[in-house]
MORN repeat variant (Chryseobacterium luteum), 322 residues
Amino acid sequence: MKIFISLIFSLCFFLNSCAQQKYEKPPGFGKGKIYKIQKGIPYKKEFNYLNVNQLDKLSNGLFCWKSDNDCQILDGKTKLFNYYQTSGDDNPTLVPYTYAEGEFLKGKYQGIWKYFDKKSRLIKKEKWANGQLIYRKEYNFNTCDNWEQYKFSNINSSEYNSIEQFKKDFSIKSGNLVCENGIVKSMQLIFEDETTIQFISINNGLTKGHEIQIKGDPVPSGKSYFYDKKGNVKRISEVENELLEGNGHYIDYYYPENKKNSGVVTIPIKKAEGEVRNNLKFGEWKYYNKEGKMDSIKTYALKDSIDVRFPYCIFNKNEPCY
């Protein structure tokens, strides 16, 4: 027990990264040949692969590989692994993942050390010279610059953020999707409503692609919206006329619920159509009901600023698209 407590203290102090949970090592995993050598004498090894629980520190400040009553000084390239516990099932299991990788030079940290989370994302990077820390850089995955996906919805779903939360986390600035940390560099937005799941690719604050999947339909279904390099609407799938830099004829659709789930693709119903200029509604627009019959006509000026692009249309002061 004293050895285990010493290990955890040493890891937290010298690696500055200590897990909150305690994970037990599965029997038989990571065991290799035990080298019986005198304590404190370096053992040269081209590559070390060991559990973080096998890492210890001698009284002279050198890190070593703990085995039985011996602790072999580490020398050479090293990879440390740890475990995380699965959740959400009746039989949680321990899954190994790479915790850190770098090099020891006769028991001292040397060169670049990298640390990872259980999703294999780089969370910290350090540079050492003969046991002396030169610099440390930590990566914050609570910023939008590092999010891989952002799920949100206009229906109550525990797996998705609300529309209200999305509007708190993001905004539109100079035509770009931004968050507190600046322009969204690269992210996939996933939006769910009653009948669809929509996938929106964002690159440098601009939409690069927008695909709609109707629930219960085989893939693909729904419409796809294509964008040019400047983030302007270029084309809508199955619509003959292309748009030029966000100018042209635009069509929006209803997506009926697939109740039968029979493998037949659901046909979208025209919801609205009209002219867009710079991706904004302009002139006369026709609106249809869910039976496909024209319901109303409305005329727009550019000052109305009704953006048709998703997710930018969420931030429209008038006619937000959700």
Remarks:
- Confidence is low (pLDDT under 50) at residues 1-40.
- The longest helix spans residues 2-15.
